[in-house]
Design a protein that fits this description.
The chain is α+β, with helices and mostly antiparallel strands. It has one domain: Immunoglobulin-like, CATH 2.60.40. It has one helix and eight strands, in the order H-E-E-E-E-E-E-E-E. The chain has an eight-stranded antiparallel sheet, with no helix packed on it. The structure holds zinc ion.
Length: 148
């Protein structure tokens, strides 16, 4: 009896661990990017294949929505010689005028003013472009527990 209880416990622990690692975690944005949650509305940070940054505003269900007159700037890369990107509206999103500077794990600072009379919200994180081996998202949008 004792033996069975131990075995049951081991199986339960084994089953619980991988599920837990991917359960109750953040989710990626509609394009597979990182959801920026500091401001309202939320916005998705996504790096396009040509390394431009696409910012898409999201509604309460984290679906893309049109947001007029947002002001967005991104500063990234080498602290001594940072690259500044500005954004223009493209469909439902805002796309940077230039690609991100070289490097696969750039520190970036994004400042978003979603509405003309809103306040500017600043988000800072590492734009790690490597692909996560677990969730297959880019690391900057990784939805695994270890990301945050
Ligand atoms: Zn991941």
């Amino acid at each position: 009896m004792k033996h069975i209880l131990i075995l049951t416990g081991l199986v339960a622990a084994f089953l619980a661990s991988p599920v837990h690692a991917h359960g109750s975690v953040g989710k990626a944005g509609p394009n597979g990017g990182r959801i920026l949650k500091k401001g309202e509305p939320h916005a998705e940070f996504f790096v396009t294949p040509d390394k431009k940054v696409r910012i898409t505003f999201l509604n309460a269900e984290d679906k893309p929505m049109t947001q007029e007159n947002a002001q967005i700037t991104l500063t990234g890369g080498d602290r001594a010689n940072p690259t500044k990107l500005t954004f223009t509206k493209d469909g439902d999103s805002y796309v940077s005028d230039k690609p991100l500077p070289e490097g696969n794990n750039l520190p970036v600072v994004i400042q978003i003013k979603a509405t003309a009379d809103g306040k500017t919200v600043t988000e800072k994180f590492g734009a790690n472009l490597a692909t996560c081996g677990e969730c297959k998202h880019p690391e900057y949008a990784c939805t695994c527990d270890h990301a945050e």
